[in-house]
Design brief:
563 residues, 6-stranded mixed β-sheet, 12 strands, 39% helix, 12% strand
């Protein structure tokens, strides 16, 4: 549970209010009514009956993002955008005229009264995010509601004409000589590279074997959550799929499995989220401890293997919130995180990577002659990164740097793998569009993209803007080590000349079975070989695009993919 969700409650309060009264009240009248409710809270400590009645009509699934609010199809988008604009104006005025404690109190009361979360969870989440919110409101020269709503509710068409949300980076035209097809299938040979892909580790440093899986909080099995109500509710040794993250010995066993089962590992990709889901209880020091511990375990168990890691949205405290590099106020800056990974990951990365890591958590490195890795911090692109509202244009110049780096790679005849935690279709619309422009321009340089975040084992295909049927790239998602996502990691066979992905395998174990035998390492097994199951010649863009057509007409094959 994050403050983003609590603020969404406030936005939806006005949204539903507008929906109910759309024919009789203007946006200004509705804004004034809600502001009156907040002012009455200052005097009485309670919301007005009108405001409470409105909030109680908010479907919880809508407020927490699992099911969008849907008034009539004729009014849905306009109602949401109108309500959002009014709500943002109210919140800005309230923050400007009240102390931090007063703002905390009103949002905390909303959280307690209108969600199912405990005082502990509400207070923790709000306390973590509030400083960033207040800083942005007080220090952003121009913060129109249209910008905020255009980011938060971009899927509803809000503020598409807001100028600050429309920007682009400089990308030159694709040279004619570069318009060749390197997406053809390669022949797997003995010289192919082996890449391990792990993502969304989510290590809980206070996971308790035998702990409470029925804790009533967003994440369970922690030592501070009391005893389980019965033996059946006790957390397993290796982890538990009832809303729990993983103990350290689970991660250690995963590394031991990787080392034993894959003798010739060339590289390891880790696409973010070292840190657990206890987002109401995070701190800078706790997150430093988790990131440091996971990094050190990789160094200790696989000392001769190069690891290319990137940050996930859970690494900062609070989660999702990555401040621009020029924000130096220690209460809201992300500088501590960039300094941490610049030091911890230096054993795997070239010295010149430090400069861009300190600027924004991204880097590039030559993995071998002719083959380059680019590690992005694309967590900045999400609509849940509050700093998007401060300045939505290409935070820290990362996309422009990406385009410039790929141009140099093209000139040097290099092929590139891009690593980033967030799949690009989950980014703010403009950021996603500009990233797609880059992939389109450098389709013959970028041979694969690797993501995490979704906890699902799937792939996304990129298509050319000018030729919508022409597949230009593939992004592979690695799944997760989290038990309720079916603990897994993936391996990739990569052509050692073209650096196209030839094949992938997924490895997993049965958590229920493993928990019957504590202290005996789990029995990992290969879930699939992609080539064997789906009959593709390789996993290039061309081959994967062909597969999608087969999946559309072959239900048996589609079932194999989706199971």
């Amino acid at each position: 549970m994050s403050l983003q969700r609590v603020i969404t409650v406030a936005v939806l309060t006005v949204t539903i209010c507008v929906a109910i009264n759309a024919t009789s009240l203007t946006e200004r009248q509705m804004r004034d009514e809600v502001l009156h409710g907040f002012r009455q809270f200052d005097i009485t400590g309670k919301f007005t009956p009108q405001l409470s009645a409105i909030m109680k009509q908010i479907p919880l699934s809508s407020a927490f993002g699992t099911e969008p609010f849907k008034p009539s199809t004729e009014t849905r988008d306009s109602v949401i955008c109108m309500g959002c604009t009014a709500a943002v104006d109210v919140m800005k005025e309230y923050i400007a005229s009240h102390t931090r404690d007063e703002v905390f109190n009103v949002v905390h009361t909303m959280c307690i009264e209108f969600t199912q979360y405990s005082t502990e969870v509400c207070a923790g989440s709000i306390g973590l995010h509030l400083d960033s919110i207040i800083y942005i409101v007080e220090n952003t020269e121009d913060l129109p509601a249209a910008r905020v709503c255009g980011i938060v509710f971009q899927g509803n068409g809000c503020s598409r004409d807001e100028p600050s949300l429309e920007w682009s980076i400089e990308i030159g035209p694709k040279p004619e000589a570069n318009k060749i097809d390197n997406k053809k299938a390669d022949v797997k040979d003995a010289d192919s590279l082996t890449v391990i892909h792990m993502t969304d580790i989510h290590h809980d440093p206070i996971y308790l074997v035998g702990g409470n899986t029925a804790c009533g909080q967003p994440m369970c099995c922690r030592s501070v959550q009391g005893s389980p109500p019965n033996e059946e509710a006790a957390a397993g040794y290796w982890g538990d799929n009832r809303g729990c993250d993983i103990p350290l010995h689970h991660f250690v066993a995963t590394l031991q499995q990787v080392k034993a089962a894959h003798q010739n590992i060339d590289f390891i990709y880790i696409t973010g989220d070292f840190v657990d889901h206890a987002v109401w209880d995070s701190s800078v020091q706790t997150n430093i401890g988790v990131i440091t511990n996971i990094t050190n375990q990789l160094k200790n168990h696989l000392p001769n293997t190069i690891v290319y890691p990137v940050l996930g949205n859970h690494e900062p405290s609070p989660l999702n919130v990555f401040a621009p590099h020029y924000i130096t106020d220690e209460k809201v800056s992300t500088k501590w995180l960039y300094e941490l990974i610049a030091d911890l990951w230096s054993v795997w990365l070239p010295p010149d990577a430090r400069e861009t890591i300190l600027r924004g958590g991204f880097y590039t490195a030559v993995a071998k002659p002719g083959f380059r890795i680019i590690g992005l911090n694309n967590n900045v692109c999400t609509t849940e990164n509050w700093w998007m509202n401060h300045n939505p244009k290409d935070q820290d110049g990362q996309l422009q740097w990406l385009a410039d780096t790929l141009l140099q790679a093209e000139e040097d005849g290099e092929k590139v793998h891009i690593l980033g935690h967030i799949p690009s279709d989950r980014c703010m619309r403009t950021w996603s569009r500009e990233f797609h422009r880059i992939i389109d321009r450098f389709e013959n340089t970028v041979t694969a993209i690797f993501n995490g975040h979704s906890h699902g084992d799937h792939f996304n295909i990129y298509y050319s803007t000018d030729e919508p049927t022409h597949a230009i790239g593939v992004a592979f998602n690695g799944g997760s080590l989290v038990p309720n996502s079916n603990t897994n990691y993936k391996t990739y066979s990569v052509d050692s000349t073209t650096f196209n992905v030839l094949n992938s395998e997924s490895w997993t174990f049965d958590m229920v079975e493993a928990n019957k035998y504590p202290y005996v390492n789990p029995n990992w097994n290969q879930l699939y070989s992609f080539q064997d199951v789906f009959g593709v010649e390789s996993q290039t863009a061309t081959e994967m695009e062909k597969l999608t057509h087969k999946l559309a007409v072959n239900r048996s094959l589609l079932h194999k993919y989706s199971r």
